[in-house]
């Protein structure tokens, strides 16, 4: 029974195809949850967009009201709010935080290839590497802003601020334009100095310094719910709102990535990895930045296809599973797995390159293409689907090899996201990588981390280490050594396949 002695905190995360929210109490028990689905626009090849107002803000308002209703709580009982949103997006807004165009999404949107090439030539490869530790990639916001400047000058001229997803939500709630250090210093690099102040020199060819948001810490109070936002969200006017962060950062916190050696693998629409470290690691194939936890860093990496790949199979190959889902209520993805576990390791010599939307790490090639290699008349759609699931594991293994090269320790690996609902897939990942994979006991994801960080924002929790007592592991997947040995030759072929076909891909 809910009592007035308890404290309550709200967290809402805006994702690629779904937004989720939660209210937790001061012991981090989940009081209420709610989700809202939405689409993603793909108007041209390599272009991926959301309508920030109709998707991001609409979902936030819907979820906020639903959480209050489902929990039975009054708005004044919510002590603080935290939000996160899908990665490094770019949405230009006017002085009233009205979007001036649809948001250009994170690394899956690769429209700014020419801008990346121009910036690399303008600054020089060495300077780019000094800033990023790698070449420019489609996850960086600087080329996206330059694309707007080059291609939509009328939008650029009207832009008051260039925001990312979490910045937009926080601005709509509070009227203040902020971005957290974790997301801002990495994704908007090198438009900020390391202390968070705007780098006026590097802004010269990109944007005006005043068009950028203020850098703060993730759990700092960005402001308070305005009268207008109160009416739209149901939250009480004056409720504290933390700066917030991207979905992956919040999800990492929710799984217990709280000290060096802790790692999260997020199985969402795309796949994202965050490994907390005690040092910056420079490597062209991966990303690095300061982490949310004070005095730590992280290695981060992301593939463009994970859930989007399984969704593609569902919508194009396993359409009958969607029909059966409508008729029986059984989940289509569960139906797609029937017979998969009977197929041997390596899918009878069938290897998928999962680059259906280009690829981020470790190849950083927006022009990469998907491939089914080794098809024979003996293969079925089940073989194809298992091969797709295995390909995600092969990509993860490539990243582990990079971590090993740099002698970066991994103490624990926590898997989160929709993909963890598929135990056979998680076992494949463990077998391919030869690593023990755990799922989080609480699998809500980023919104759970948002709510916990909201509690930290008002000092209910004094330190991130307190959260380690709360976050517990759920299922554990131990690698099967025989399966791992059988996978080794397929991993080698996977690693060689892109290199051998890269030039041909680019001709397409």
From TrEMBL:
Gene Ontology annotations of biological process type: carbohydrate metabolic process
Record's keyword terms, sorted: Kinase, Transferase
Signal peptide start-end: none
Domain Carbohydrate kinase FGGY C-terminal span(s) in chain numbering: 292-457
Molecular function terms from GO: kinase activity; phosphotransferase activity, alcohol group as acceptor
Superkingdom of origin: Bacteria
InterPro entries in the cross-refs: ATPase_NBD, Carb_kinase_FGGY, Carb_kinase_FGGY_CS, FGGY_C, FGGY_Carb_Kinase, FGGY_N
Record domain Carbohydrate kinase FGGY N-terminal: where: 8-250
Family, as annotated: Belongs to the FGGY kinase family.
PANTHER family in UniProt: SUGAR KINASE, XYLULOSE KINASE
Protein name: Xylulokinase
Species of origin: Clostridium amylolyticum
């Amino acid at each position: 029974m809910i009592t007035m002695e308890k404290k309550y905190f709200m967290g809402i995360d805006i994702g690629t195809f779904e937004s989720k929210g939660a209210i937790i109490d001061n012991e981090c028990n989940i009081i209420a949850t709610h989700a809202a689905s939405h689409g993603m626009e793909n108007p041209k090849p390599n272009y991926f967009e959301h309508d920030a107002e109709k998707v991001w803000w609409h979902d936030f308002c819907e979820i906020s009201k639903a959480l209050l209703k489902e929990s039975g709580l009054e708005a004044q009982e919510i002590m603080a709010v935290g939000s996160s949103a899908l990665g490094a997006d770019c949405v230009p807004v006017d002085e009233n935080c009205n979007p001036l165009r649809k948001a250009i999404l994170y690394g899956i949107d690769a429209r700014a290839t020419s801008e990346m090439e121009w910036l690399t030539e303008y600054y020089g490869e060495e300077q780019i590497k000094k800033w990023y530790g790698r070449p420019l990639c489609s996850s960086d916001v600087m080329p996206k802003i330059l694309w707007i400047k080059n291609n939509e000058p009328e939008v650029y001229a009207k832009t008051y601020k260039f925001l990312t997803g979490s910045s937009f939500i926080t601005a709509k709630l509070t009227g203040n334009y902020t971005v957290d250090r974790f997301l801002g210093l990495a994704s908007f690099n090198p438009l900020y100095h390391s202390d968070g102040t705007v780098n006026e020199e590097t802004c010269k060819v990109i944007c005006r310094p005043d068009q950028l948001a203020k850098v703060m810490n993730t759990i700092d109070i960005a402001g308070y719910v305005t009268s207008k936002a109160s009416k739209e969200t149901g939250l009480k006017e004056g409720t504290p709102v933390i700066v917030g962060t991207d979905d992956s950062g919040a999800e990492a916190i929710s799984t217990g990535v709280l000290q060096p050696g802790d790692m999260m693998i997020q199985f969402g629409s795309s796949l994202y990895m965050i490994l907390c470290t005690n040092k910056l690691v420079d490597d062209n194939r991966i990303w690095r930045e300061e982490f949310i936890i004070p005095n730590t860093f992280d290695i981060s990496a992301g593939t463009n296809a994970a859930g989007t790949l399984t969704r593609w199979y569902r919508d194009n190959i396993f359409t009958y599973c969607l029909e059966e889902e409508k008729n029986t209520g059984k989940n289509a993805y569960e139906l797609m797995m029937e017979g998969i576990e009977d197929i041997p390791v390596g899918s009878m010599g069938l290897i998928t390159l999962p680059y259906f939307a280009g690829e981020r790490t470790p190849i950083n090639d927006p022009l990469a293409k998907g491939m089914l290699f080794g098809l024979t008349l003996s293969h079925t759609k089940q073989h194809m689907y298992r091969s797709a699931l295995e390909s995600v594991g092969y990509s993860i293994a490539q990243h582990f090899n990079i971590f090993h090269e740099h002698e970066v320790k991994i103490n624990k690996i926590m898997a989160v996201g929709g993909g963890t609902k598929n135990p056979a897939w998680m076992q494949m990942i463990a077998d391919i990588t030869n690593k023990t994979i755990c799922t989080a006991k609480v699998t809500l994801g980023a919104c759970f981390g948002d709510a916990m960080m909201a509690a930290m924002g008002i000092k209910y929790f004094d330190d991130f280490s307190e959260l380690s007592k709360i976050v517990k592991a759920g299922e554990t997947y131990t690698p099967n050594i025989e399966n791992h040995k059988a996978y080794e030759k397929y991993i080698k072929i996977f690693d060689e396949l892109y290199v051998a076909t890269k030039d041909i891909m680019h001709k397409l």
